Amino acid sequence: MRADLLNSILSDLNGSSADIEASAVISTDGLMMAAMLPANMDEDRVGAMGAAMLSLGDRTGQELERGDLEQILIKGDKGYVLMTYAGNDAVITVLTKANARLGLIFLDVKRAAEAVTKVL
């Protein structure tokens, strides 16, 4: 039941923008809770990388006195990876196209994170 709700949230998120190519809900310890990823992406690897990035981001924010981590944004020549906390125990990871309009995506991801938080 919970997995269905999470998948529904991701489906709505992916449908909100043509710039969003994939999304996932990952527990803070790296377990995949729900995913809408391309077939060639390994869910376990995505989950493990997400947990590692969160850990590093949390520590960096604290060490450099930037406060609590809210999101991580990685820009590559083929697009962006955006990670945003959804409550204390999960994070939404979104993959976008290179020319994505990030302002709208940030808003959509924030709404999805709030929905995920209510489900969990």
Q: What would you call the shape?
A: globular
What is the name of the CATH superfamily? Dynein light chain 2a, cytoplasmic
Order of helices and strands: HEEHEEEH
In DSSP terms (H or I, runs of 4 or more residues), the helix count works out at: 3
Taking the alpha carbons of the first and last residues, their distance comes to 11 Å
SSE diagram, text form:
Elements: H1 2-16, E1 20-27, E2 32-36, H2 43-63, E3 71-76, E4 79-85, E5 90-96, H3 102-119
Helix pairs in contact: 1-3
Written account of the structure:
By secondary structure, this protein is an alpha+beta fold. The chain has a single domain, classed as Dynein light chain 2a, cytoplasmic (Beta-Lactamase, 2-Layer Sandwich). Helices cover 45% and strands 28% of the residues. It contains three helices and five strands, in the order H-E-E-H-E-E-E-H. A hairpin with a 2-residue loop joins strand 3 and strand 4. The model has no long low-confidence stretch (mean pLDDT 93).
